[in-house]
């Protein structure tokens, strides 16, 4: 894994970049998922960020649907959400983004990585 240095709230953190094989595995698992967070017409609010963090802590891998017709505006919302949550964008297709963030303590009953492990080839 490569390490990428990033900034979040004036703090420097070290984030591990996903390898091609890891991304492929996460996309395979993500294919079976439905969006659990939806960013509506009000845009990226504090409540949306909190709900995304809660979902990432529980499930580790989630889909987020971003409303809006303007591609640049959707891309800006996705980038802001990734930065605010500390997650990694695995895949973007249209209005759907697949986000991954490793949980500090994995919940065996809620983690999509555990629940859908049979879908990956690894």
UniProtKB/TrEMBL annotation:
Q: Does the keyword RNA-binding apply?
A: yes
Q: Cite the entry's keywords alphabetically.
A: RNA-binding
Q: Which Pfam families does this UniProt record tie to the protein?
A: CRS1_YhbY (PF01985)
Checking InterPro entries in the record gives: RNA-binding_CRM (IPR001890), RNA-binding_domain (IPR051925), RNA-binding_YhbY (IPR017924), YhbY-like_sf (IPR035920)
Q: Which GO terms describe its molecular function?
A: RNA binding
Question: Could you confirm whether the keyword Acetylation appears in this record?
Answer: no
- Which stretches make up the CRM domain? 16-112
Q: Cite the NCBIfam families for this sequence.
A: RNA_bind_YhbY
- Protein name, please? CRM domain-containing protein
Which species is the source of this protein?
Acinetobacter parvus DSM 16617 = CIP 108168
- What is the taxonomic lineage of the source species? Bacteria, Pseudomonadati, Pseudomonadota, Gammaproteobacteria, Moraxellales
């Amino acid at each position: 894994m490569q390490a990428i240095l990033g900034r979040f709230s004036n703090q420097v953190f070290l984030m591990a970049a996903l390898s091609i094989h890891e991304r492929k595995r996460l996309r395979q698992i993500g294919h079976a998922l439905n969006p659990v967070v939806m960013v509506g017409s009000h845009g990226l609010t504090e409540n949306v960020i909190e709900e995304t963090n809660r979902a990432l802590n529980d499930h580790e891998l989630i889909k987020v649907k971003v409303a809006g017709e303007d591609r640049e505006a959707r891309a800006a919302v996705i980038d802001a959400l990734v930065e605010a949550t500390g997650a990694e964008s695995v895949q973007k297709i249209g209005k759907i983004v697949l986000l991954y963030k490793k949980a500090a303590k994995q919940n065996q009953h809620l983690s999509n990585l555990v629940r859908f492990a049979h879908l990956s080839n690894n």
